[in-house]
Amino acid sequence: MLTATLAVIAPATGAGWDPVALEDLPAPLRQSVSEGRRLFMEEGFGGNGRRCTSCHLEGGTRRGHLPDGRTVPSLVGVAATFPKYKARRERVLTLADQVQICVAGGIQGRPPAQGSDTMRALLSYLTFLSQGRPIRLGGR
Ligand code: HEC
Questions:
Q1: Whose CA is nearest to atom 12 of ligand 1?
Q2: CATH number of the domain at 2-128, please?
């Protein structure tokens, strides 16, 4: 089902992302990606009712906007740009750090611990969204 969903959204997201390879993954990794997508779409982390996809539209495959007009980036290709330096925070962030920031900030919820099953699944899904993209350390 995940593959079918992604096959539908893939053409909208631009070149360089190859979700077809999902079928070649070992079942446990495929399940982790799938669970990560479910969390991204449904999990509230005990917060303000927002989900990841409330801001990162369509499972993170589309760009969005906050009420104040700030752009919310599409997350396709983003995992391949971490770790990155965020000047606003004056530190180098890993992808897991960024997930915790979004849960604590945007969702005002309890961030999943580094190394937890929840974090593992979210990172699996986010990395899946960069399938086929070259690493661009610190890039956009
Ligand atoms: C309230 C809106 C909102 C919610 C909800 C939200 N985010 Fe974000 N997210 C943002 C904004 C705004 C940015 C850009 C911040 C920046 O660049 O510093 C961002 C950035 C990111 C980035 C880095 C993008 C980049 O190009 O560096 C990732 C990865 C990410 N979010 C993942 C998530 C995940 C996973 C969730 C759910 C656990 C989530 N976000 C929930 C608003 C949100």
A1: 72
A2: 1.10.760.10
How far from the centroid of its chain's Cα atoms is residue 101's Cα? 13
Q: Hey, whose CA ends up nearest to atom 14 of ligand 1? A: 72
Domain positions in the chain: 2-128
Give the integer Cα–Cα distance in Å for 79 and 129. 7
Mutational pocket test of ligand 1: of 37, 55, 86, the residue with most ligand atoms within 8 Å of the beta carbon: 55
List of E strands, the chain: 64-65, 71-72, 84-86, 91-93
- The CB of 72 under 6 Å from ligand 1? The reply is yes
Predicted confidence band of residue 2 (pLDDT cuts 50, 70, 90):
low
Between 13 and 115, whose confidence is greater?
Answer: 115
Banded model confidence at residue 23, pLDDT cuts 50, 70, 90: confident
Tell me the CA–centroid distance for residue 90 and ligand 1, in Å.
Answer: 17
Each residue of 37-89: pLDDT tens digit?
Answer: 999 999 999 999 999 999 999 999 999 888 888 999 999 999 999 999 999 99
Rounded Cα distance between 129 and 76, Å, is 5
